[in-house]
Amino acid sequence: MASRPIAVHGSYFHENYGDIILVSRYCDWARKYAPGSRVALPLASARTTGLVGGDAHGLAALRDSRALIFTGGCYFGEPPAGELLWRYQAFYPHGFPARIARKNGVPHSFIGVGAGPITHLAILTIFGTICVGAHVLE
User: CB within 8 A of 97, min separation 6: which ones?
Assistant: First the structure.
């Protein structure tokens, strides 16, 4: 039986060079931490999964994961002028995996993730909920 994967999530949507390198390093660290582990990227495309050396992608892989690690970046925040659409477009792809992980009992951790300012009440509530449930993974 294959081991449950470790899910790694970050800003890998637009194949930005710096973000891809960062996610790739987290994938390497996950494998070093747990030798023999597979690494899943919950919302990555198949192409991005291949670029960073992931083994699987998709929500099924997240639900089956033994842990979810959020990589560095500053995606839990708002622009100074704060447009509502921007808030949801920036927050949804990152808040959603944490909520799925919580619902499925997958421990999650934020490592080097920037946050704030957050002024929209709904986003603040969701972010507070997922932060309270975060763990230091051992």
Answer: 7, 9, 42, 43, 62, 68, 108
Burial 98-116 (b: 16+ CB within 10 A, else e): bebbbeeebbbebeebeee
Residues 19-28 have pLDDT tens digits of 888 899 999 9
- Tokens encoding 36: 């023999």
What does the alpha-carbon distance between residue 11 and residue 74 come to, in Å, rounded to a whole number? 9
How many C-alpha atoms does 37 have within 13 Å on its Cβ side?
23
**pLDDT tens-digit series, residues 82-115:** 566 666 666 677 778 888 888 888 998 888 776 7
The pTM assigned to this predicted structure is 0.83
Q: Where are the alpha helices (DSSP H) in 7-111?
A: 17-33, 46-52, 59-63, 84-103
Give CA–CA dist 73/62, Å, rounded. Answer: 20
The residue with tokens 């194949």 is 15
Distance of alpha carbon 44 from its chain centroid, rounded? 10
